[in-house]
Design brief:
Length: 226
């Protein structure tokens, strides 16, 4: 089976991606809200924020309500058009098509760089490059935030993907290849999990330290000070 590196460009963008969140069961919606709340608690009204993988603007809208200015990037043109339709009139929002592993921003451009909802896995780019680029564009003393799933959330996460599969948003789940921490679908979708040790190892290779926090027994956050 070939892993589709541009899955969120070709298969799961715009309205289809939005439906993923609309179909989320109550426990998953709790996880999604807890994840955003954790990030918002780390923002101030003077911050300039970059969200990696902003999709149709689900999180970007919440960030824009608190921060001074927000930039959202994604590789999916369809998702960005959807985001622009929802947020385009907001004076403090900029939406740009860009690869998170090759950011076209100057060094130290942002107070906060945010990559949540397991983007470190979903982007299918080298994680060390992704984190390194994020830190490059973060101001000294600023913060880069990455999240993955807590292993305590595995059953709820798997049920959410089963629902997505039933609605044709992702392919049929390959139950033989799927194991705790990794979901594999027969259409090429693959979602992994970044543990605390894995996050710490990558950050250490970059000569940095990180703080790992489990939130709501559903997400795992890696916070890195630039």
């Amino acid at each position: 089976m070939v892993v589709m590196k541009n899955y969120y460009d070709c298969n799961l963008s715009a309205e289809r991606l939005q439906l993923v969140y609309e179909l989320a069961p109550p426990r998953v919606k709790q996880y999604l809200e807890a994840e955003i709340s954790f990030v918002l608690d780390r923002l101030s009204s003077s911050d300039i924020v970059l969200e990696l993988g902003c999709g149709y603007g689900r999180v970007l809208e919440r960030l824009a309500a608190k921060a001074k200015r927000v930039f959202g990037i994604d590789t999916s043109e369809a998702s960005l058009l959807s985001a622009a339709g929802q947020l385009g009139s907001a004076a403090n929002v900029n939406i740009v098509q860009m690869n998170a592993a090759a950011l076209a921003f100057q060094n130290g451009s942002f107070d906060r760089v945010v990559c949540i909802q397991n983007g470190i896995s979903a982007f299918h780019v080298d994680p060390k490059t992704l984190i390194g680029e994020s830190l490059r564009v973060t101001k000294r003393g600023g913060l880069a935030l990455f999240s993955s799933y807590s292993m305590k959330f595995w059953k709820d996460r798997l049920e959410w993907f089963r629902i997505q599969s039933e609605h044709g948003l992702v392919g049929e789940i390959d139950w033989n290849a799927t194991r705790e921490g990794e979901i594999v679908c027969k259409d090429g979708f693959r979602g992994t999990t970044y543990t605390a040790d894995r996050f710490a190892s990558i950050v250490s290779q970059l000569g940095r330290r990180c703080t790992i926090t489990e939130v709501d027994e559903s997400s795992l956050f890696c916070e890195i000070t630039a």
